[in-house]
Amino acid sequence: SISILWFRRDLRLADHAALYHALKSDYPVLPLFIFDQHILDKLPKDDARVTFIYQTIEDLKRELQQYGSDLLIKYGKPEKIWPEILKEYDVKGVYTNHDYEPYACERDDNMAEFLTSEKIIFKTYKDQVIFEKNEILKADKTPYTVFTPFYKQWHAKLNDFYVEAYPTQKYLKNLLQIKHLPYPGLYEMGFEKRKLDFPKISYQNKLDDYAKKRDFPGLDGTTHIGLHLRFGTLSIRKAVKDALEAKSDVWLSELAWREFYMTILWHFPHSASNSFKKQYDKIKWQNNEDEFKAWCEGNTGYPIVDAGMRQLNQTGWMHNRVRMIVASFLTKHLLIDWRWGEAYFAEKLLDYEMASNVGGWQWAAGSGNDAAPYFRIFNPELQTKKFDPKFEYIKKWVPEFGTKKYAQPIVEHTFARERVLKVFKEALSNL
Ligand code: FAD
């Protein structure tokens, strides 16, 4: 008889809620990871995140082998894989961490039903956030839709208890002793290996100057840990604890933005694909495909926009200030539906997080909860003057900037501004 720990977006052994509880169960623990076809089938074959996950999973497997155990790795659809596992092993309990995106919630509801029907315990734990779902609510028990009061309560509630690490190390001896389980190759699953430099978990040296540097894309002032929070190679409790110790309040509040957007998505799942404010679905987007292509490729003739898109295409990451500028440009200057931009980011960002991405895009389009009013339109030139005054960032990503080779602006700023104001006003006139 065994317990199973099902890894999903929590790919580490240290400070892991579900692993800790599994190890304290009555049975030895077999760790499992499923390469989920429902997710993989939608991704391009050269998706860099799949390479990152694959490498991380192999590391995890090696680490578990050092404890005399192994990682069971499967490829397929969870609803097909699980009955097979139950035939192979005498499973008494399944332990896993909460997951909040719409697909994951549905998958776990189905799992709960299936395992219960098989008389197997299914236990899930909070792990990827400090406060989840219904832990931060207004006095009337409804969710916050504005960040500042959310954060006030989030911060007031935070104490040592919530950042204490789960001492999994002490119990790793309770892993199932098993040898050399075979596993599928990356190519067998239809993916290519991408050679990208994935960011390392090393942010301590950034925290002191974070507040001063974070808004300037030419300075490497942010921590690049999004990818590690996304796949759980870094525990959020550790990150928050480090923020508190370094007294880096601004960085702490950024970690809380992540939870704010997760809470919003959990309470308002429609906002994944519809405007949070319904009236914004009436906007008559222009959706010009050639202009969209120029934006994707970084050929709009607006240097700060092009620099951002090229950074994204080449590295899988873009600076936050520039994410705001390119998102505003796509929706306001080019009048292209925010969902097109959201989907492009979803495909390219290593740190892609549905809640934050949808939140960021709806904020830029003006359709989100707590968004900038629609008439506030970023002026790319002024943004450049303020945040990249010496064109350091622009020159790095757009080498032809300032030469004749550089593209002409795809649209004139004043014209674009007046056009978007008219279109938005028409859609929202009955507010
Ligand atoms: P740091 O500045 O060092 O911050 C540390 C961590 O805090 C980040 O890794 C992230 O987990 C969290 N964080 C910081 N800012 C935000 C924010 N505004 N909202 C939510 N969480 C935040 N972030 C994602 O993690 N995934 C996305 O898919 C994503 N899409 C975005 C799309 C748009 C249009 C915009 C405007 C922002 C988006 N963001 C997204 C938020 C933000 O840009 C990134 O989190 C940040 O740039 C990542 O870089 P970093 O790891 O160096 O962050």
Features:
431 residues; alpha/beta; Rossmann fold; Serine Threonine Protein Phosphatase 5, Tetratricopeptide repeat; DNA Cyclobutane Dipyrimidine Photolyase, subunit A, domain 3; 3 domains; 5-stranded parallel beta sheet; 19 helices; 46% helix; binds flavin-adenine dinucleotide
Distance between the termini: 61 Å
- Which architecture of the largest domain does the CATH hierarchy give at level 2? Orthogonal Bundle
Strand order of the largest sheet: 3-2-1-4-5
- Write down the CATH topology of the largest domain: DNA Cyclobutane Dipyrimidine Photolyase, subunit A, domain 3
Q: What is the overall silhouette?
A: globular
Bound molecules: flavin-adenine dinucleotide
CATH homologous superfamily assignment of the largest domain: DNA Cyclobutane Dipyrimidine Photolyase, subunit A, domain 3
Strand count: 5
Percentage of residues in helical conformation: 40-55%
**Could you report the average pLDDT, rounded to the nearest whole number?**
96
Pfam family, one: FAD_binding_7
Protein name: Deoxyribodipyrimidine photo-lyase
Family: Belongs to the DNA photolyase family.
Keywords: Chromophore, FAD, Flavoprotein
